[in-house]
Specification:
With 504 residues, the chain is an alpha/beta fold. Helix content is 29%, strand content 23%. It contains twelve helices and 18 strands. It has helices at 2-19, 58-65, 69-80, 98-113, 181-198, 215-218, 220-231, 278-291, 298-312, 314-317, 336-341, 380-399, and strands spanning 49-50, 120-129, 139-148, 153-163, 205-212, 235-242, 260-265, 320-324, 346-351, 364-366, 369-371, 405-409, 431-436, 443-452, 460-465, 469-472, 479-487, 499-500. It is globular, with a radius of gyration of 25 Å.
């Protein structure tokens, strides 16, 4: 008679042990693997609502539809046909070498500017690079830069880049063929197609479309451009760098699908500004580490913004953005790092799977394998989709308000008492945020964003109105926060991570 009772108690204990996993706030769900449970709802909160990615308006949808794979193909083909675009190659030959490529890009950009009613200006951003380990003799480095001036906030600037130089295995070989169809004629095609489409428009902020040189030798062109902008006190709120964006299905490797572009975003630990000395940088990184903000750098929040825009425009861009928590591919680099070094938010787009038989290779057939960065290995439709993602996100940023400044989180509210006279309202688990409103004429309101600390993307949003402060019943211990501006046109800025008050 005792066996059934024992069994019943065991079953009750088992049921009790299992039932808590279905309670609100559970990190578990029966239908998915642990660690990828989309329905997990920790921490429990009624603050805000699930974030819906911002969708493109009719004007942006029409612009995205203008991206032409045939024009992308023509650009990549023309650049490939210059034979080599090595930084040290001929600069006076009209049909071969980096000089011919530079002149052709310049001519094309100038033709786009003719339709801009004087709003787009095309210039060379040049200097003479002296001899280094990768520069055999003094050489002219020229960036082709098309600037579309903003209509209402012209100093706020967004920059898209791709490099037009190419290389072989031997980085000093500037004579032989270096087609560079994927690396990086594809990125230049993205830049040029965006410039053509935007030339007839008037964004609120300034947009720069730059084909840079000297990347393969050591980021020389982009470094000069970023320094030029920094020296001119230009407020660069983002760099979209496109490098190796020519195919999504490199054989013999097969990614999830042909509709994925990787987006690399640096953490706070990346040396983000040359204006900080080593002591200041170490102190800043220690503070970021203490508050758990290493994944909320300006670069990663720019990446989250781009991924959200692509999600909201998924039916128009036909592409998904895979945000990766690294400044670049493992132990590698690119032109966005020149912008990071000047303290500007910057990210890098690169195809989902690289094929190293077609990158930095001497064109040849060896043991039955075709080597070389050749035109035949570029998918022009894929590159056009990458251009659509760039266009949708950069145009959205340039027509949204500027990012909020001096965003802080209170170090009084939501902390233990400092004394017996500490007000009761400070002893809650609330979090209070403050920021400058600056009477921006583009702003309609501001949003508080939040996500669980381990989540890649923002999950919740709360519109707080056109104010400079908000207090919410949500513990700063458990989630990551951001503040962003919402425009009167509905477009939203990238989010800004709040620092402890007194630290901004």
């Amino acid at each position: 008679m005792f066996a059934p009772l024992t069994l019943l108690l065991s079953l009750l204990a088992l049921a009790s042990a299992q039932s808590w996993t279905t309670l609100p706030g559970s990190l578990y769900c029966s239908s998915e693997a642990w660690g990828s449970c989309a329905s997990a709802d920790w921490p429990q909160s009624n603050v805000g609502s699930p974030l819906e990615p911002q969708a493109p308006d009719a004007e942006l949808q029409a612009m995205i539809a203008e991206v032409d794979p045939k024009r992308v193909q023509d650009i990549i083909t023309t650049l490939t046909n210059f034979g080599t675009r090595h930084t040290l190659s001929n600069q006076t030959d009209p049909v071969r070498g980096i000089g011919a490529a530079r002149d052709w890009i310049m001519k094309e950009m100038q033709s786009f500017a003719q339709a801009s009613n004087g709003n787009m200006e095309v210039k060379l951003n040049s200097y003479i690079q002296s001899v280094t380990d990768t520069i055999l003799f003094p050489v002219n480095i020229s960036n082709v830069v098309a600037t579309l001036k903003g209509s209402s906030d012209s100093n706020r600037t967004y920059v898209v880049t791709g490099h037009y130089d190419s290389r072989r295995i031997d980085i000093l070989d500037y004579i032989n063929e270096a087609p560079g169809s994927d690396d990086d004629a594809s990125g230049v095609a993205v830049v040029m197609e965006m410039a053509r489409i935007c030339a007839t428009k008037r964004p609120a902020a300034t947009m720069i479309f730059a084909a840079v040189a000297g990347e393969e030798q050591d980021l020389y062109g982009s470094n000069h451009l970023a320094q030029t902008l920094k020296n001119a006190s230009v407020n660069v709120e983002g760099n979209w760098n496109n490098d190796i964006v020519g195919t999504g299905s490199s054989e013999p490797f097969f990614p999830v699908n042909n509709y994925t572009i990787r987006l690399f975003g640096a953490s706070y630990a990346y040396p983000a500004s040359t204006t900080l000395n080593s002591t200041q940088l170490a102190s800043e990184l220690q503070e970021i580490g203490i508050i758990g903000g290493e994944n909320d750098s300006p670069a990663r929040n720019l990446g989250r913004f781009i991924a959200e825009i692509a999600a909201g425009a998924s039916e128009d861009v036909n592409m998904q953005v895979a945000l990766i928590y690294r400044p670049d591919r493992y132990l590698r680099g690119g032109d966005h790092e020149s912008f990071l070094a000047q303290g500007f938010p910057a990210v890098r787009f690169t195809e989902a799977t690289e094929d190293f038989t077609h990158q930095h290779q001497d064109p040849r057939v060896q043991n039955g394998t075709v080597y070389g960065d050749l035109l035949e290995f570029v998918d022009f439709e894929y590159t056009a989709r990458v251009a659509k993602v760039n266009l949708a996100s950069m145009w959205s940023a340039a027509n949204a308000p500027a990012m909020p400044v001096n965003v802080s989180i209170s170090t009084l509210i939501g902390f233990p008492a400092a004394s017996e006279s500490t007000p009761l309202y400070e002893l809650s688990n609330d979090s209070q945020f403050n920021w400058n409103t600056d009477n921006d004429p583009l702003v309609a309101s501001y949003e508080l964003l939040w996500r669980p600390a381990g989540a890649l993307q923002w999950t919740h949003t709360l519109n707080v109105g056109n104010v400079g402060t908000v207090t919410v019943n949500l513990s700063k211990d458990d989630v990551q926060f951001g503040i962003r501006a919402v425009g009167k046109n509905g477009m939203k800025s990238p989010a800004v991570f709040p620092l402890p008050d007194g630290e901004v």
